[in-house]
Amino acid sequence: MELEKILKELSTRPGMLWVIGGGAAVSENGSEGMKEPAFDGGYATIGGHNWHFHLKTDSVTGVQFVEAEDHGIPFLYYVRFSDGEDTLLRVYFPNPYLDENEKPADFQPDRLEAFEEVRDRYVNKADVVFVKRPRQTSG
Questions:
Q1: Is the residue at 71 inside a domain?
Q2: Does residue 134 form part of some domain?
């Protein structure tokens, strides 16, 4: 899997949102002051201006580039790293339907193109896949 290469590339892109965890508790972290991930002893150390986390790299068994329908805006675009069952990490691209203040805005095609460019570089290589997720309905 091209895990190290993908994480390094995502860490260099401005405006990304790093969401750690996926269950009952998550941590959302901006990309301000992102440092290039360090890899040592089977772990990646990833972080920004005033946060960091450690990811056991051999626990990542799946990488998905995701286009997900959302409730308030048409779509979310992100990369999901999982251990086969649970989400370990999601990295969100700047949304083409939101402005810099996260408010609804006219569609910004350059933001979608950024996601598609990175997606197309990795999908179908080393088990990296592209997934379209429909909106989740409650009830």
A1: yes
A2: no
How many distinct structural domains can be found in the chain? Answer: 1
Q: What mean pLDDT is predicted for residues 13-39?
A: 93
CATH number, position 19: 3.40.1570.10
d(CA 62, CA 6): 12
Name which residue leads in pLDDT, 125 or 135: 125
Following CA atoms 88, 99, 133, 1 in sequence, which dihedral angle do they give, to the nearest 10 degrees?
A: -40
* ∠ CA 88-90-32, rounded to 5°: 120
Alpha-carbon torsion (118, 119, 121, 125), positive or negative: positive
pTM, two decimals, is 0.93
For residue 131, being part of any structural domain is answered with: no
pLDDT at 137 over 70: no
- Give the max Cα distance, the chain: 45
Average pLDDT, the chain: 93
**Domain range holding 51?**
3-123
How high is the pLDDT of residue 125?
Answer: 87
> Which residues on neighbouring strands pair with residue 46, listed in sequence order?
53
